[in-house]
Amino acid sequence: MSREEHSRPQWLAQSLLVSLLIVGCSAAKPPAPLPPPPLPPLERVTSFDVSLPKGKQLPPVAGRVQAYKIRKGDTLLDVARDAGLGYQELQDANPTVDQWVPAPGAEVAVPTRWIVPRSQYRGLVINVPEMRLYMFPRKTRAGQRIAVRTWAVSIGLADTQSPLGRFTVRAKDKNPTWGVPDSIYAEMDEPRRVVLPGPDNPLGEYRLRLSEGLYAIHGTNIPWSIGRETTHGCIRLYPEDLEVLYPLVPVGTPAEFIYEPVKLGELEGGVYVEVHSDRYHRIRDMQKYAAKLVKDAGLSSRVDAARLRQAVEAQSGVPVDITRADASPLPLADATAMRAHAHAR
Question: Tens of pLDDT along 272-281?
Fold first, then answer.
């Protein structure tokens, strides 16, 4: 046998081995992708630092939007309370998610970001359609950097609306006794003229009486009512939130109830809009109302009209950037002054 014939079987074996290795490599599965990093823990955002607007400046955007992955057994009401939100705030930001049985693993937006509402920026400010209370220092000035506290609330029903205007806190009660008004007495399943402190008292453990009639800011024995139209005009808070608010509010504190379903704000030179439902149907056309706000603020040239219309249509309650792509940002000095959102606690 020649040397060439002798080496041929060895060459064939080596070729077969190489072929098998190549086939094996090509058939190997790529490594599985790494799972996404876990979301950070849900934070209850109830305070932030802002600089108050000066002159024609828009109010600042404060806080931040969080994300939360639904776990088995969660409801949107649970998630809302954990985040310090009212039910409707979370539902509006996630309109396709079932409030009672959200799908486990679904990721929801948690809208702990707000445009500070236009107001006198002093004391307690309740934006009724937003169903949210903001607490400012009792004395403030334009351009001042301040700490703001904020909490979700419930408001009056359409037939028993929460009042609008400026009031003061005239009295405070711990473990209040509820003297039932005639209008509510007539609707009670088991009518009582007086409800003593305890778990059956709808006022909860604290009450701040206002200078207007029988209206008050109080707690509740039904926490899942927060973020809804449920009262006869009073303002309700989660029990744990009113426990924090109560000692911070002395008698004589100013209170302002406003109606701003559409809020405009600025963030680092961009224009933002936050839109809520017109709870009491006070506005004939929300699109025209929003467009007029933009025009009156002198922002028509900086705002993308299509984005504005989409935000008004969605009414998500989340601040949305509506700045035109070709719009010039604010001058640096003004933009720096408007970075009031930077620190949320």
Answer: 999 999 999 9
With 0-12 / 13-18 / 19 or more C-beta atoms within 10 angstroms meaning exposed / middle / buried, residue 329 is middle
Radius of gyration of the chain (CA): 29
Tokens of 77: 């009401």
Which residue has 């009056």 as its token pair? 156
Residue type, 151: W
The torsion of the CA quartet 220, 224, 226, 232, rounded to 10 degrees, works out to: -60
Respond yes or no: is residue 25 known to be catalytic: no
pLDDT band at 38 (very low <50, low <70, confident <90, very high): confident
Q: Please tell me the distance from the alpha carbon of residue 335 to that of residue 82, in angstroms, as a whole number.
A: 33
Give the distance from CA 21 to its chain's centroid.
58
Of 6, 234, 341, 343, which residue is the catalytic one?
234
Residues with Cβ within 8 Å of residue 123, at least 6 apart in sequence? 135, 136, 138, 253, 254, 255, 256
Out of 218, 276, 281, 343, pick the active-site residue: 218
- Block residue for tokens 């046998």: 1
pTM for this model (two decimals): 0.84
Enumerate domains of the chain plus CATH numbers.
Answer: 119-258 (2.40.440.10), 262-337 (no CATH)
DSSP lists the bridge partners of residue 344 as 48
pLDDT digits (tens, 9 = 90+) for 320-342: 999 999 876 655 334 433 343 43
Rounded to whole angstroms, the Cα distance separating 86 from 66 reads 15
204: closest CA among 160, 243, 239, 156?
239
Sign of the alpha-carbon dihedral angle for 227, 44, 237, 265: negative
Told to judge if 341 belongs to the known catalytic residues of this protein, a careful annotator would answer no
